[in-house]
């Protein structure tokens, strides 16, 4: 079945997990498969970002320039650069493959076209982000109350 593996991988990403099969299939058509060898550079800290990577197999080290940051290792199911789907940003870290790593790349341009063609997807994501912001606000208030006590 065309895009079956991509659809399964996208369905396991929390931000896309609420999409139905038809919507996931349309999103899968926006992806490009990429393969990285050990020590391949995906991007450098400070580079302009043009999309996100969904790690399918293997792993990456995310490294920040500041001395106190320890590299973060991310693996299958991790989406690197989710904010880059929504707005132009600069990469906050350098990404280097630790081993043979496959990923799906979703360009911001393709993702925004997907949202234009499927306003229901845009509404779904907006509602999800609003709920996440409400939850963060509740947690922040609880933290402030507990800190004051």
What would you say this structure looks like, in words?
This protein is an alpha+beta fold. The chain is built from four helices and eight strands. The strands form two sheets. A four-stranded antiparallel β-sheet has the order 1-8-3-6. Strands 2-7-4-5 form a four-stranded antiparallel β-sheet, with no helix packed on it. Strand 4 (about 60-65) and strand 5 (about 70-75) form a beta hairpin. The longest helix is centred in the last third of the chain and has 30 residues, at about 120-149.
Key attributes of the depicted protein:
about 150 residues; alpha+beta; four-stranded antiparallel β-sheet; about 25% strand
Map the helices and strands:
Elements: H1 4-11, H2 21-28, E1 31-36, E2 41-43, E3 51-57, E4 60-63, E5 72-74, E6 79-80, E7 94-97, E8 101-107, H3 108-117, H4 119-148
Antiparallel strand pairs: 1-8, 2-7, 3-6, 3-8, 4-5, 4-7
Helix pairs in contact: 1-2, 3-4
Tell me the name of the CATH homologous superfamily of the largest domain. Jelly Rolls
Structural class: alpha+beta
Residues in helices, as a percent range: 25-40%
Tell me, what is the CATH class of the largest domain?
Mainly Beta
Described by strand count, sense and barrel closure, the largest sheet is: 4 strands, antiparallel
How far the N terminus sits from the C terminus, by CA atoms, comes to 58 Å
Shape: globular
How many helical elements? Answer: 4
Mean pLDDT: 91
Q: List low-confidence stretches.
A: none
Second-tier CATH architecture of the largest domain: Sandwich
């Amino acid at each position: 079945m065309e895009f079956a593996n991509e659809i399964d991988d996208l369905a396991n990403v929390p931000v896309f997990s609420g999409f139905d099969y038809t919507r996931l299939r349309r999103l899968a058509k926006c992806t490009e498969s990429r393969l990285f060898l050990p020590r391949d550079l995906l991007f450098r800290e400070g580079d302009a970002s043009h999309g996100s990577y969904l790690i399918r197999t293997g792993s990456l080290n995310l490294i920040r320039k500041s001395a106190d940051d320890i590299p973060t290792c991310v693996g299958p199911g991790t989406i690197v650069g989710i904010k880059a789907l929504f707005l132009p940003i600069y990469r906050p870290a350098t990404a280097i493959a630790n081993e043979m790593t496959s990923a799906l790349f979703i360009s911001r341009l393709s993702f925004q076209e997907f949202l234009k063609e499927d306003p229901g997807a845009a509404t779904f994501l907006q509602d999800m982000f609003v709920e996440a912001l409400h939850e963060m606000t509740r947690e922040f208030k609880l933290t402030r109350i507990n800190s004051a006590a």
